[in-house]
């Protein structure tokens, strides 16, 4: 019996380092996979967005519109009694009824998007974007609460078009809903920036080809799907 116990203890002592080594290797592999996944995500995906809030404090009543979102001007004096004598006769203090303080907090807009980039197969680069926002609407204003898909497109790009011995042209093909081709160099603002349903300041389904010829020139050809359903082609 003692011999069996001694053999078991010896076996346990000899196997403990092996088990510990196997556990350490599994943990190391798990950490390596986690770091590789994190690096892959940082290289190929970029998540962005914001939540926009409004805070306002007024020392008196104001004329405002769109659910008090847009402030126009403070209101004139509105006395409870026309004269001090009338207020004294009534036994109350004469005061301006519009001299009332107010505080507003409005949370209206949330935007979230993801950029896909730096995927490459051979000489072809792949990318894309999906962007949406939610507009919460206002009390008393109908038809404003909505979830909108702002942009959704994929891109294919090539850098293999040779212009001369030193420079290579970059060609990019975009397919999906994006900003109108004429809406170039739009300022980035933390705002709704919804665009209009007509003209260059809009987002439209399209197929667009951009050829970057050096650092100063870009040739763009696009076919847009207008609201009427007929395609509109342009070159600039």
Descriptive account of the structure:
By secondary structure, the chain is α+β, with helices and mostly antiparallel strands. It has two helices and ten strands; from the N terminus they run αβββαβββββββ. The protein has helices at residues 2-44, 84-90; strands at residues 45-58, 62-65, 70-74, 102-121, 124-135, 146-162, 168-179, 203-213, 217-225, 231-235. An eight-stranded antiparallel beta sheet has the order 1-4-5-6-7-8-9-10. It has a two-stranded antiparallel ribbon with strand order 2-3. Strand 2 (62-65) and strand 3 form a beta hairpin. It is elongated, with a radius of gyration of 33 Å.
List the helices and strands and how they pair.
Blueprint: H1 2-44, E1 45-58, E2 62-65, E3 70-74, H2 84-90, E4 102-121, E5 124-135, E6 146-162, E7 168-179, E8 203-213, E9 217-225, E10 231-235
Antiparallel strand pairs: 1-4, 2-3, 4-5, 5-6, 6-7, 7-8, 8-9, 9-10
Keywords:
eight-stranded antiparallel sheet, alpha+beta, single chain, two-stranded antiparallel sheet, 236 residues, 2 helices, disordered C terminus
